[in-house]
């Protein structure tokens, strides 16, 4: 029974491979690889230092408090209190 599906699976696999390669070639690194393979761009050394230390602010676990302090000066909207009116029913 599986022998009848082999051709369909092969065609589906080929289509999936073509779509995957096209998607890879349209993204950043894939596009660069394709340009290098086609000779449109020269290979250049990596200039980024991936494992260098960078300056970061001190870590804080008080996220809500930090947001509260930052937004404390923003004006707030309050609702006016109106007395509840009794419901009118038809008799």
Model description:
The protein is mainly α. It has a domain at 1-42. Helices cover 45% and strands 0% of the residues. It is built from three helices and no strands. It has helices at 6-26, 28-38, 63-71. Helix 1 crosses helix 2 (28-38). The radius of gyration is 32 Å and the shape is flat. The model has no long low-confidence stretch (mean pLDDT 79).
- What order do the helices and strands follow? HHH
Low-confidence stretches: none
**Average predicted local confidence, pLDDT:** 79
Q: What is the approximate shape?
A: flat
Largest sheet: none
Radius of gyration: 32 Å
Oligomer: single chain
- Tell me the structural class: mainly alpha
Strand content: under 5%
Topology, number of strands: 0
CA distance, first residue to last residue: 77 Å
Question: Helical proportion?
Answer: 40-55%
Count of alpha and pi helical runs:
3
């Amino acid at each position: 029974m599986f022998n009848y599906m082999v051709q369909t699976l092969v065609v589906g696999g080929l289509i999936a491979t073509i779509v995957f390669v096209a998607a890879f070639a349209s993204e950043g690194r894939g596009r660069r690889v394709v340009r290098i393979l086609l000779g449109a761009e020269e290979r250049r050394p990596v200039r980024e230092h991936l494992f260098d230390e960078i300056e970061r602010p001190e870590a804080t676990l008080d996220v809500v408090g930090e947001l509260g302090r930052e937004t404390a000066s923003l004006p707030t909207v309050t609702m006016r209190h109106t007395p509840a009116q009794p419901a009118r029913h038809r008799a």
